[in-house]
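User: My instructor asked us to take a sequence, write out its structure as tokens, and then describe one feature of it. I'm not sure where to start. Here is the sequence I was given:
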Amino acid sequence: MTILDNVSIVRGPNISLRLVQIPDAGYLYGLRINPDYNTHLSEFNGTLRDQEIWIEKYKEREAELKELYYIVERSDGVPCGAVRLYRISPPIFEWGSWILDENKPKKAALESATLVYMTAFDIMGMDEAHFDVRRGNARTLEFHRRYGAIETHATEQDIYFKYPRSKFESDRDSFLSLLSGFRSDS
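Assistant: Let's start with the prediction itself. The structure tokens for your sequence are:
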């Protein structure tokens, strides 16, 4: 099995991450143009066809393990979000484009972030995550701070973080315990 095979679907107790396919363009396009979800993302003015073309080009970066774009799915297969690992340059990667929609189960933020880190640290052998959060995105800022991310610097628009593998390794069991003790179907 290749690394790409190992990261194509990453399963947690209540959700999974599966690599984006061209038929997902409609779902992603809907998220990107929905003001309930796109407030803190880079602006997107394209069409559904533009989203399909973007995915086609992305698949080339995926094949080179330079980027991984996931659909977040509930255990019943219903899409409930998206997340992306990009600028993958071992031992560092960035992640973002993180959206969870109204179909998400409880604790989906914790579980999807944990699955991102399991993918990058455990499967791909990365050492550190980098990401930025818009200053106005208070809930996401609070989440990352509670998760243990370290602020590195800030601009007028964004706050930048890093999250080392060593921190994840020390906290992973407690995160997984929280998630496996909670079933979204109960």
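For the description part of your assignment, you could build on this observation: The two ends are 35 Å apart (CA to CA). Try explaining in your own words what that tells you about the chain.
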